[in-house]
Amino acid sequence: MIMLIDWALRDVSLLGHNGRVAPRVLSEPKILAGVASTPTLSRAWRALLCRAKSSFKRQRPMQHPVLSQKAARFTESVIRGMSIEALKYNAVNLAQGMPDFPAPPDLKAAACRAIESDINQYAVTWGARGLRQAIAEHASWHLGLTVDPETEITVTCGSTEAMLVALLSLINPGDEVILSQPFYENYWPDCVLAGAVPRFFPMRAPDWTFDPDELAAAFNDRTKAIVLCNPNNPTGTVFSRAELEQVAALCRKWDVIAITDEIYEHIVYDGRPHVALASLDGMRERSVTIGGMSKTYSVTGWRVGTMIAPASLTHAFRQVHDYVSIGAAAPLQEAGAFAYRMPRAYYTKLSADYQSRRDRLCSALLDVGFDLVPPHGAYYVMANIEAFGATDDVAFARHLVRDLGVATVPGSSFFHDKALGRQYIRFCFCKQDSTLDAAIERLRKLQVIV
Ligand SMILES: Cc1ncc(COP(=O)(O)O)c(C=O)c1O
């Protein structure tokens, strides 16, 4: 008996810090209960023993699932995961779409000036006025949109937040959202978080475009929105005006909102124009145009995104955004006002430089034995791996990163129906020539290894 009380008190003495006791130190609760009811114990001792007993109860393993049903549906981002593998195996990272060259010096200087002039506190939650003004000017000449910076623009923490905010603000549980397949990896988790039911329309190789009938078949009276990435990650498709007209007609017919991810708006090749869906007839009032600084100004780590939408939608977006993140980094927004007013020559050079990187990588990949059609926009290429006898994109990508030292993204991570992506891997080419050359040199070993 004395020993039992001693054990129990040792447990109780541990309760002091935070009321928690490591379960392995705790005594059996039944024994504690027995001890606590022993008539010879004083009231104080009994109280201590009861505390020990209830603490033991608190330490029992959780009876209910800890994670929400939404969180339990997620897996880690394959793209970001491949970047971690690249570090681990000292591989050339052609997986995650982040440039390895510096941002424009003038832009960096503008950010430094903003910090030097003590722009250190929260900006207006929906975006610093100067930046919104600059975004409106840019949208006018580049997208052909007349935008009121006071009521129709929201600045977010990257376009990633913008997409989530749009869906959280528009979707009721069970509403359907149309996605292309393949699609940029984030859209499916965004739909899950918003409670949307995704429906897919296929974009098929080799030119990665869609069949109008298959697109039309995805619409019905439960459709709330379509998410369209243009220029497209991962396929590099730049939708023509005629294709966008088909999307627009369906949006009007079914009273659907178009959420366009135009983060690669300035990265288009071979003279292809970038057309904003919102600029087509009757689309401005039902479009959310998402963009950002990450890709156009080579500052993926700055986390400045933009949403252009009618005032009624923007009002809701701003509220949701406020509670999600309050706002993007204030000094970087200040620099953004400088960025969006860059001379047009900046943008011409940006796409010309990317076109030369595209040509460098794509011709080398064809030479090595991959099958692909060079993309018309964005900075990715989907490469078919069947010529190497490969049938499993994940195993193939793992082989590339671990044995050859080149990180890519398995194609299936862009598909809901994983089988459709098994014969592809995605390369990105937002890299210096020397990086691309190093990757190519390593890839040349493929022919003999596989
Ligand atoms: C299609 C697409 N949208 C959004 C993002 C993320 O953009 P941000 O850095 O603005 O969040 C990426 C990044 O790779 C992307 O490819």
Notes on the structure:
It comes from Singulisphaera acidiphila (strain ATCC BAA-1392 / DSM 18658 / VKM B-2454 / MOB10). GO terms for molecular function: kynurenine-oxoglutarate transaminase activity; pyridoxal phosphate binding. This protein has three domains: 2-58, no CATH class; 75-101 and 345-449, Aspartate Aminotransferase, domain 1, CATH 3.90.1150; 118-343, Aspartate Aminotransferase, domain 2. The protein is built from 18 helices and 13 strands. It has helices spanning 2-14, 29-36, 43-58, 69-72, 78-88, 105-116, 129-143, 158-170, 187-194, 212-217, 241-254, 293-296, 311-325, 330-339, 344-368, 393-404, 433-443, 446-449, and strands at residues 92-93, 153-156, 176-181, 197-204, 209-210, 223-229, 257-261, 287-292, 305-308, 380-384, 406-407, 409-410, 424-428. It has an eight-stranded mixed sheet with strand order 2-9-8-7-6-3-4-5, with helices on both faces. Strands 10-13-12 form a three-stranded antiparallel sheet. The protein binds pyridoxal-5'-phosphate. Pyridoxal-5'-phosphate is lined by residues 97, 158-160, 184, 229, 233, 261, 263, 292, 294, 300, 305.
